[in-house]
Design a protein that fits this description.
Blueprint (H helix, E strand, L loop, with lengths): L1 H17 L5 H11 L6 E2 L4 E2 L6 E7 L11 E7 L5 E2 L4 E5 L2 E4 L5 E2 L3 E7 L9 E3 L14 E6 L9 E7 L7 H6 L17 E4 L12 E4 L7
Parallel strand pairs: 9-10
Antiparallel strand pairs: 1-2, 3-4, 3-13, 4-9, 5-8, 6-7, 6-11, 11-12, 13-14
Bound molecules: calcium ion (4 copies).
Amino acid sequence: MFATIVLLASFASLWGGVFGTVAISSDIEKSENNKFEAGEWDDDLAVPLTQLDHIVITEVLYDDSSDDDTGKEWIELYNGTDGEVDMSGMDLFATTGDDFIFPGGFKLSQFSFVVVHWNLVGSDSATDLYTGTSDSFDNMGNTSGWVALFKNSTHSKDTIIDYLEYGAGGQTAESKAADAGIWTAGDFIPDVNEGYSIEKKEKDIDLNKASEFKDQSIPTPKK
Ligand SMILES: [Ca+2]
Ligand SMILES: [Ca+2]
Ligand SMILES: [Ca+2]
Ligand SMILES: [Ca+2]
């Protein structure tokens, strides 16, 4: 049973890789038909039926319901890999020119979320990190923007871990993500209403497609 599911998961991953230009709807349908969606766990093994190999960006609140978004925007990341990930020195970009370096010693536990609070001062914890305000951060765009996670402060196709863009294609780091094979140039998540977030439908699957995200009317930080 498990071997079959692993094979199916491998096939889905291959399918996404080889047929990268095929409409995402067919990929998603395949996933659903084959029953290895996120949130489904193998009762005997107590592990998810798919296993990511990198940290993923799972949700972004870029346009808070208030007029001034300062300190109210956040980015949620998830570790669906097979163990704890040391995120020390990883670099999260959410607007052009503004980035957040993960503090030394910060480790994200397996199957756990962390929320990075953008342009806000606070006390860091295992589940919440704060960029502070000293770097004169810009707020995230309310109609378009992008978020990129890099392994370190070298920003290239070789260090980019995860990427998304919303509202429009062709944004600043798109070419790096496309060169790395983790985004398709021109693909973007549709802009959502003020107060809504963009949220990954399946946190344990990463096909690097905008259509993996949904319009979330009730944002869900840390879950
Ligand atoms: Ca904003
Ligand atoms: Ca707003
Ligand atoms: Ca991705
Ligand atoms: Ca969430």
